[in-house]
UniProtKB/TrEMBL annotation:
Stored Pfam families: Ammonium_transp (PF00909)
Residues annotated as domain Ammonium transporter AmtB-like: 1-402
Function recorded in the entry: Involved in the uptake of ammonium/ammonia (NH(4)(+)/NH(3)).
The keyword Transmembrane appears for this protein: yes
Organism from which the protein derives: Nocardia donostiensis
Subcellular location: Cell membrane
Record-stated family: Belongs to the ammonia transporter channel (TC 1.A.11.2) family.
Gene Ontology molecular function terms on file: ammonium channel activity
Subunit structure: Homotrimer.
UniProtKB keywords: Ammonia transport, Cell membrane, Membrane, Transmembrane, Transmembrane helix, Transport
Protein name: Ammonium transporter
GO cellular component: plasma membrane
Amino acid sequence: MLMSAALVLLMTPGLAFFYGGMVRSKNVLNMIMMSVSAMSVVAVLWVLYGFSIAFGADKGGLIGDPAQFFGLRTLITGFAGDSAGVPLAGTIPATVFVAFQAMFAIITVALISGAVADRLRFGPWLVFCAIWVTVVYFPVAHWVWGGGWIGAKLEAIDFAGGTAVHINSGAAALALALVVGTRTGWPKAPWRPHNLPLVMLGAALLWFGWFGFNAGSAAAADGVAGVTFVTTLIATAAAMPAWLLVEKIRDGKPTSLGAASGIVAGLVAITPSCSSVNVFGALAIGAIAGAVCALAVSLKFRLGYDDSLDVVGIHVVGGLLGTVLIGIFAAPQAPAGVAGLLYGGGLGLLGRQTVGAVAVLSYSFVIALVIAVALRFTIGLRATREAEAAGMDESEHAETAYDFAAVGGTARSAVKEGMTA
């Protein structure tokens, strides 16, 4: 479980590279900083009161008791005296469970940043992170995993975060993008990724870390972890060529950006369903997600919202597909032990999955919209046109990712300058 937690934490730097390579060179450091800063903000709030809200004693199906584990005061104990025992969460130390779940909270917040790349100021981003994770992520995690109404009462399935992580972050990303507004010149100006190898590296790190994300959610090295590891692998493997096929038909060429995006789409879709489907269900969910998300990313041009790095098209759409399709492809022999429509399960599971997905999407979108509007009219959100033109790296951090001046000229001129100096 400690190794799985470390793998999930690695996903956030992987996401930083994935997002960083997709923006222009003058914004790459800012993009990376938005992901990395989430590691700091969320981790502090998680150990203070976030874990308690998410996994404390249930209060009406909506939140956990915020005071129960405040500062983890009742969990770091049991080391003095023979009669004392270390608190457990199931069969593992409670502090290990705290660490594992902290990584989920961190990457959920970091995912939001991709929708507002190139234009959101860094300071307001940190404030948004702190407020949103407190009033949205922590309660939604309780709804889904902590004994709240979605997991315990509705009995909708979300093994590793289709609703709590992906739909949740994607809905917030859409709300924030709408309030911040479009980038200057969008959609006419060219917005090409500045470093595709960095994008591919980020996608590879995400895929690697995702095995801790999904298989680690079994909370044991057992058969459930084995199944979720395999379904995560094959759904992702099916999603990538499905995305590339859509690209080939639509645009004439399969691209490396499409391959990286297809990987992420497959990972997103299998996250909620990895414990409830067999091999064929995982292949179907991955292929459907790859193809549909490839089509969905172009909706922003028709609908007029500037989702810079396709957070909505991949995480909302992929999360919805992965969550709802459990109602169709769930196989009774899989660890979850439930039957979808294809296995004679009826409409009940499909309905429960849909209700859970729509509830999280609606709550996250509305609350994120309120937070964003409040920040816009108080401390402000968006960089000035001048700062946006200069680049967020320079305007927000007084840094540049690449010092092109240092590599100007020829090797001979560099030697000559060194000798004269």
